[in-house]
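Retry 2 of 3 after timeout on previous attempt. Resubmitting structure tokens to design endpoint.
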């Protein structure tokens, strides 16, 4: 777990990052600037309990790729959840809170994750642990309002102008942050890579067949 002295404002940005891409860097950049964070912990998780692990890139490789694109010195790429055998976000936040007294944390998530947030293990506990900053994502600007968590904790929503103070607020407190959006997605990147690999295999098979025919 990265070190954070008392009094710092720290963002927690978790995900499988399978693989990480410029869209993730954009979210981190927006969070650092709009929330006025001293640090941002880029937390590479062992895996998402709600998703299949069959296409999961090895953790060490996801850490390496994340470090390659997370260039701001305030960003700390970490995978401490694996070392502590933590699988669920609620347990991660409880661990972070217990080990870092005097540090103000804010959970950072993309608006696209808000749709299924109520399916996360002990999601209400997550909302009650740290303030939450929801960062705009393509196609999610309006749909987030219909999410279960937005309706349930509507009373805890703060105006976007309060974003610089969000980390210092007591939970529950959350805000939606608009800004530049990237259409990149890890799923699309994996699909494109799989298509390229399939094309190469198909091309190799055709070349082999043609060579055999020539002989």
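Retry 2 succeeded. Sequence:
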């Amino acid at each position: 777990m990265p070190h954070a002295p008392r009094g710092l404002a720290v963002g927690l940005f978790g995900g499988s990052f399978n693989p990480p891409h410029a869209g993730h860097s954009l979210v981190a950049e927006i969070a650092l600037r709009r929330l006025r964070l001293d640090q941002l912990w880029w937390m590479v998780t062992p895996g998402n309990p709600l998703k299949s692990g069959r296409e999961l890139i090895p953790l060490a490789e996801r850490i390496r790729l994340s470090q390659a694109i997370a260039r701001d010195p305030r960003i700390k790429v970490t995978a401490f959840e694996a070392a502590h055998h933590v699988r669920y976000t609620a347990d991660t936040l409880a661990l972070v809170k217990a080990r870092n007294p005097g540090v103000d944390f804010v959970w950072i998530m993309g608006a696209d994750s808000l749709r299924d947030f109520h399916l996360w293990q002990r999601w209400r506990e997550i909302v009650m642990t740290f303030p939450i900053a929801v960062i705009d994502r393509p196609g999610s600007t309006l749909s987030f309002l219909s999410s279960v968590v937005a309706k349930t904790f509507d009373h805890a929503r703060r105006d976007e102008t309060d974003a610089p103070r969000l980390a210092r607020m007591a939970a529950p407190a959350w805000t939606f942050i608009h800004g530049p959006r990237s259409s990149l997605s890890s799923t699309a990147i994996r699909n494109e890579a799989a298509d390229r690999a399939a094309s190469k295999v198909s091309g190799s098979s055709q070349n082999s067949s043609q060579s055999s025919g020539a002989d």
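Attempt log closed. DSSP finds seven helices and six strands in the chain.
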